[in-house]
DNA sequence: GCTTGACCCTGTAACGATTACAAGGTTTAG
DNA sequence: CTAAACCTTGTAATCGTTACAGGGTCAAGC
């Protein structure tokens, strides 16, 4: 006797909004679920687990594409595990690069914050810095940082 | 005798693509420049400096909205400098939060990477972790991390 | 003269993941 | 019976940048 859940209940159980669940379905991370009498999506326990998988992957910062690859590996239990390890390692490397970049930015920013106490913007250290300082790299799009 | 530059030269001098420059104009960060004979945008030195300002702000990770606020402050030299300091401080705080979050993710990821040596995905530690592990926070959208 | 390539113009769509609608139908509680 | 809360679909917004399409202008080389 399998319990089934409508999308709203799945949402509150997984912490994943109904919109996102439908989105994952459209992207192919979730198989189209069965439909109830009124055409409502109906999810079983396995689907819940799969959504939890996606959710936890997201909470680790993995993108949906990587998660899709991991799900595909998980669907084929006989595959070599190296591929999964590669995805995680690649992401960890990516995270470490990003942390380093953000730390560098934070350091740069700490040098200018609180430098102009109660003055006028004409003499503001922050604004002066932005005008004068040369970014390290002037290549196209280089140095742009998300967040 | 003021030199003027077309958008392509501005691009190579500032490291900012022509598309981005036009984008900044559309968003109101740059005033619409003078136009040459064929309708080509024509930038003077002040515009170059302003684009450099934007560029450096972006390289520090500021969003365009914050940069616009800083530009507005810079355009009114008599304004109190506190506002600029607030923007920078807020951003620094934001950066530090993000660094902490990413470090936490990286730590979590380091625990699972390289745990499954040459096995099959059926026993893969990474995939098991994604299935089993409960994210700390199951609130809507909580725990999602960009990058 | 005529072609080729490098510029410039405008407007629109893509990226990634999510959210927010609109406009409709259904269930549930008071 | 009615109002709120749910479900359906599709589309558009967010952010900053890039990539087109479809067109115009100009200089160098043949």
Short summary of the structure?
The structure is a homodimer of 147-residue chains. Chain A has helices spanning 7-14, 18-27, 45-59, 64-75, 82-112, 125-132; strands at residues 34-35, 41-42.
Description:
- Chains A, B: Keywords: DNA-binding, Transcription, Transcription regulation.
- Chains A, B: Pfam families: MerR (PF00376), MerR-DNA-bind (PF09278).
- Chains A, B: It comes from Vreelandella andesensis.
- Two copies of one chain form a homodimer.
- Chain A folds into two domains: 7-75, Multidrug-efflux Transporter Regulator, Chain: A, Domain 2 (Orthogonal Bundle); 82-132.
- The termini of chain A are far apart.
- The first copy, chain A, has six helices and two strands, in the order ααββαααα.
- By secondary structure, the first copy, chain A, is mainly alpha-helical.
- A two-stranded antiparallel ribbon of chain A has the order 1-2.
- Chains A and B meet through helix 3, helix 4, helix 5 and helix 6 of A and helix 3, helix 4, helix 5 and helix 6 of B.
- Chain A binds a DNA duplex (30 and 30 nucleotides) through helix 2.
**Main sheet of chain A?**
2 strands, antiparallel
Mean pLDDT reading of chain A: 89
Largest interface: A-B, 75 and 74 residues
Unreliable residue stretches of chain A: 136-141
- The CATH topology of the largest domain in chain A turns out to be Multidrug-efflux Transporter Regulator, Chain: A, Domain 2
The number of E-state strands of chain A comes to: 2
Question: Helical percent range of chain A?
Answer: 55-70%
Spatial order of the strands forming the largest sheet of chain A: 1-2
What's the alpha carbon Rg of chain A, rounded to whole Å? 23 Å
Q: Specify the structural class of chain A.
A: mainly alpha
Question: What's the CATH class of the largest domain in chain A, please?
Answer: Mainly Alpha
Q: Regarding quaternary structure, how should these chains be classified?
A: homodimer
């Amino acid at each position: 006797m399998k319990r089934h859940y409508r999308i709203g209940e799945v949402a509150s159980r997984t912490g994943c909004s109904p919109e996102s669940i439908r989105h994952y379905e459209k992207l192919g991370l979730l198989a189209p679920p069965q439909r109830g009498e009124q055409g409502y999506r109906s999810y079983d326990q396995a689907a819940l687990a799969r959504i939890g998988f996606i959710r936890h992957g997201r909470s680790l910062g993995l993108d949906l594409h990587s998660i899709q690859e991991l799900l595909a590996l998980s669907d084929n239990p006989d595959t070599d595990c190296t591929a999964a390890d590669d995805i995680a390692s690649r992401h960890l490397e990516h995270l470490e690069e990003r942390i380093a970049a953000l730390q560098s930015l934070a350091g740069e920013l700490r040098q200018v914050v609180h430098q102009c106490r109660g003055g006028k913007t004409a003499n503001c250290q922050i604004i002066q810095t932005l005008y004068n300082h040369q970014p390290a790299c002037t290549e196209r799009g280089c140095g742009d940082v998300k967040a």
